Amino acid sequence: MALFSEIYKHLGEKTNQFLDGVKPATMALIEKEFEKVTPYAKGEFECTRSVKGEAAEVEQAAGPSGKGEPDALAALESALPRADISKQLTPKLIKMFTESDWKLKVKGCEAV
Fold first, then answer.
1. Are 46 and 10 in contact (CB under 8 A)?
2. Which of 15, 19, 25, 97 is the most exposed place for a label (fewest CB within 10 A)?
3. pLDDT at 72
4. pLDDT, tens digit, for every residue of 33-91?
């Protein structure tokens, strides 16, 4: 729900285009959550990304984009919290995504 809410803040009503395969009961819950969210007006969102270490050096060397607007990748990275899951992505877990049994795929998704 947090991800849907954050996407809705940025896209507004266009978000519903991506949710056409969602069950009606689930969609009702999502729409209730959307009612609590106020979408950003065009140009209202300001990217506030802070980085450390090597990434900070790379960002500083790149300098401003000169466009006057944050690029989409930077905006997305600043909008969602980051978590390192690399240690959890084991070969066994990745294999679950290629299984033909949907129950195993769901189990893999839930683990991630």
1. no
2. 25
3. 67
4. 888 988 878 777 776 667 677 767 766 666 555 444 456 667 777 777 777 778 888 88
Q: Would you list the domain boundaries of the chain?
A: 1-43, 46-81, 84-112
| Residue 8 burial by Cβ neighbours in a 10 Å radius (0-12, 13-18, 19+) | buried
Q: Residue 9 carries which DSSP code? A: H
Q: What's the Cα-to-Cα distance from 68 to each of 28, 46, 54, 62, 84, rounded to whole Å?
A: 38, 11, 25, 15, 31
Query: Model pTM?
Result: 0.41
pLDDT recorded at residue 28: 92
Please say whether the beta carbons of 30 and 22 come within 8 A.
yes
